[in-house]
Design a protein that fits this description.
With about 425 residues, the protein is mainly alpha-helical. It has two domains: about 190 residues, MFS general substrate transporter like domains (Growth Hormone, Chain: A, Up-down Bundle); about 190 residues, Growth Hormone, Chain: A (Up-down Bundle), CATH 1.20.1250.20. It has 17 helices and no strands.
């Protein structure tokens, strides 16, 4: 194998200074908003219905981010957007920390978390664009696994270590509110340090400049044409149904999993401590999720997406039954709980591969970047809408029957999977486009 050019190797050495930290910074706000907030509000005695409804609304910036992504291209540099959004995320996290001890903490902390979500979604746009501008094609391919690894490490840090830290502080501080305020304060300080780090280590590529100075009308016309072309794809109705329904059951389970683990036995939960939930769901669960995703990618590359589609649809849905087992048997062994959650998360990671690959398949064409962004918007919407009502359904049914309902709710995803158009060879050594 030929040695890469010296310029490529030099660029690669420089990239180690910023790619791991950049994608770690991309993952932390997302996991705080989507997962850690659920645990925090449960520990602060917010009802399951309110937790599910209001934290699901926090998906909205990721749902609509394709609508303002052209602004990131038009105004300023990607580098400036990255550091600016990191500063805003850090400030908003500090806002969460300061408002948690207040009487009206729920409303104020949600407002700051929404600012975190909006800033994080904008940061995603800028970071992914910067990644493509700052390196040549060879290094982009070489670092794709590295960026994914550090994004996963951010998930483990957020769902696992930070939740465990909050649990440790709950035991040692005078109140649960104080423990979570300190936790978010630590994260805010860390994120501001990341912003300072990136201010100095991010390269300044010549290509990182505002896009061509086209008129507003021309840009709007081009955007609308791209948008309309997505909805003219053959079979778009079935495609959208798949994007919205494939994770219909999982979207509801994900919102209620942590509350179930935390709730008292009298309320039907397993009564785990905050630190134990950080270990079970945020560490063991995320590792199993990652392993499932890696195996899914390998299998699709070997046999193609169509070969594995039904196996993956089964994997993402059927293991939800472990929560029926947990809620009816109420095991006291942490090992049993870890094994059950790991099995469900492994299946989710394996099954989610089909969803990601199908988004690539759907996006194929002259506007693949914009169309993929639209797919990710529908992906977020597919988590947001079912998640909003999951708490209300759980409170109406109780945990035991809720998890039975979740298993029944997998049916729409199976129906959509059966109907989608899909080329036989896609994924088996074939590149989209």
């Amino acid at each position: 194998m030929a040695e890469p050019p010296a310029s490529t190797l030099q660029e690669r050495r420089r990239a180690w200074k910023w790619i791991p930290s950049l994608y770690f910074a991309e993952g932390i706000p997302y996991v705080l908003v989507m997962t850690v907030s659920v645990v925090m509000y449960k520990r602060l005695d917010i009802s399951n219905a309110d937790i599910a409804l209001y934290t699901s609304w926090l998906y909205l910036p990721w749902v609509i981010k394709p609508l303002w992504s052209p602004v990131v291209d038009l105004l300023g540099t990607k580098r400036a957007w990255i550091t600016g959004m990191q500063l805003l995320v850090g400030a908003a996290l500090a806002g969460v920390a300061f408002t948690i001890p207040m009487d009206s903490f729920f409303q104020w902390s949600l407002a700051f978390l929404w600012l975190v979500a909006f800033s994080s979604a904008t940061h995603d746009i800028a970071a992914d664009g910067f990644y493509m501008l700052a390196m040549d094609d060879a290094n982009q391919a070489w670092f794709v696994g590295i960026r994914s690894t550090f994004y996963r490490l951010a998930m483990i840090t957020g769902q696992g270590l930070l939740v465990m830290l909050a649990g440790w502080l709950e035991v040692r501080q005078s109140s649960v509110q104080e423990a979570w305020a300190v936790t978010f304060g630590i994260v805010a300080a860390g994120f501001l340090l990341l912003m300072v780090w990136h201010r100095f280590v991010l390269p300044v590529p010549d290509e990182d400049a505002p896009t061509a100075r086209a008129s507003g009308a021309a840009l709007l016309s081009e955007f609308l044409a791209t948008f309309v072309s997505f909805f003219r794809k053959p079979g778009i109705g079935i495609i959208l149904a798949f994007l919205l329904l494939y994770r219909f059951a999982e979207a509801q389970l994900a919102k209620m999993a942590s509350p179930f683990l935390l709730d008292s036995v009298d309320a039907g939960g397993l009564a785990l401590t905050t630190a134990q939930v950080g270990l079970v769901y945020g560490t063991v669960g995320v590792l199993a999720l990652t392993l499932g995703g890696i195996l899914g990618g390998m299998m699709v590359a070997r046999n193609g997406l169509k070969y594995w589609l039904w196996w993956m649809a089964i994997a993402i849905n059927v293991p939800n039954a472990v929560y029926i087992f947990l809620s009816w048997s109420m095991p006291t062994s942490l090992l049993v709980v870890n094994a059950a959650v790991a099995a469900e998360q492994f299946g989710y990671g394996f099954g989610f591969t089909a969803y990601m690959m199908y988004m690539i398949y759907v996006s194929d064409g002259p506007h693949k970047t914009a169309h993929f962004a639209l797919c990710t918007g529908f992906m977020a919407l597919g988590m947001m809408l079912p998640g909003m009502v999951s708490g209300w359904i759980q409170e109406a049914l109780g945990y035991k029957m809720f998890f039975v309902y979740v298993l029944i709710a997998t049916v729409p995803g199976f129906v959509a999977t059966a109907l989608i158009p899909l080329r036989e060879s896609f994924g088996r050594g074939e590149q989209a486009g």
